[in-house]
Design goal:
The protein has one domain: NAD(P)-binding Rossmann-like Domain (Rossmann fold), CATH 3.40.50.720. Helix content is about 35%, strand content about 15%. The chain has a seven-stranded parallel β-sheet with strand order 3-2-1-4-5-6-7, sandwiched between helices. It starts with 7 loop residues before the first strand and ends in a 7-residue tail after the last strand. The structure holds nicotinamide-adenine-dinucleotide. Nicotinamide-adenine-dinucleotide binds next to α1 and α4.
Length: about 260
């Protein structure tokens, strides 16, 4: 029997990177997957890959920072399969990389709503569908919540990522009585399309007088940047009953980058 046999997983940001790898991994392990993303063409492609491995997928084009869109995606998932077991709240953007004094309020708002408000919405609107039998929610934060000095210019991103940690722990507390587990994963640098953290070449950031020593090779485990598939292995573990006693945890997957 596969780990997620007959289960339904809802994955945001499923068109690319970590979300795509997780959707495929969960499907290989028996899950039926609701694929949520801004970019329909990308999730259509992921759906094809999932069907090729013998599972089912649903394409849901939506902006997860919009309450009605998130609620509607869950409704369509329930209409399709009649159940929900796993939620991977993963969609995110880097947003503007610029000093705080140059950060436009609208750019701040975009990153916060896209990364943090979206997480609240994705968790909130899952609860009615999970509460009768429990389930597992996984939130993608980042080492960049705690390890901010390595990423100057990403104030909104860091705020959103550390906000997800606090929110995820509160959700774990509030939802434990429904047997809904909530865990937070904190990847280091992972090879995806999210864009380079371009602070080293960013002209505006030259005026931020932070003396940073950036050692060559900033990852103790010298196996190169992480792969989305490696993060997907952790997502599968947290989604499945193999992690049945784990909730409210913050799990780093970064080759010990966050220790430097
Ligand atoms: P990615 O750009 O490859 O994929 C992110 C996906 O999310 C894209 O398909 C995008 O269209 C989608 N998305 C973004 N905003 C959305 C919205 N409002 N509604 C619906 N879909 C939306 O990036 P990734 O690296 O796979 O990022 C996934 C998560 O991992 C993000 O939360 C990111 O902050 C986090 N993360 C990434 C890294 C890394 O190094 N790549 C490190 C730590 C954390």
């Amino acid at each position: 029997e596969k780990l997620l046999q007959n289960q339904v997983a809802f994955v945001t940001g499923a068109g690319s990177g970590i979300g795509k790898a997780a959707a495929i991994k969960l499907a290989k392990n028996g899950g039926k997957i609701a694929l949520v993303d801004l970019h329909k063409e990308n999730v259509e492609e992921v759906k094809k890959q999932i069907e090729a491995i013998g599972s089912e997928a649903l394409v849901l084009e939506a902006n997860v920072s919009q309450p009605a869109e998130v609620e509607n995606c869950y409704q369509k998932t329930m209409d399709q399969w009649g159940r929900l077991d796993v939620v991977f709240a993963n969609a995110g953007i880097n947003g503007e990389v610029t000093p705080i004094e140059d950060m436009e309020p609208k750019d701040w708002d975009l990153t916060i709503s896209n990364n943090l408000t979206s997480t609240f919405l994705t968790v909130k609107y899952a609860i009615p569908h999970l509460k009768s039998k429990g389930g597992s929610i996984i939130i993608t934060s980042s080492i960049n919540g705690n390890r901010i000095y390595k990423n100057i210019g990403m104030s909104a991103y860091s705020t959103s990522k550390i906000g997800q940690m606090g929110f995820g722990k509160m959700a774990a507390l509030e939802l434990a009585h429904y047997r809904i587990r909530v865990n937070i994963i904190c990847p280091g640098a992972i090879e995806t399309n999210i864009g380079e953290n371009t602070w080293r070449e960013n002209e505006k950031l030259k005026k931020v007088q932070v003396p940073i020593e950036y050692p060559e090779g900033d990852q103790p485990l010298e196996d190169g940047p992480g792969k989305p598939e490696q993060v997907a292995d952790l997502v599968l573990f947290l989604a499945s009953s193999q992690s049945s006693h784990i909730t409210g945890s913050e799990i780093y997957i970064d080759g010990a980058q966050s220790l430097l």
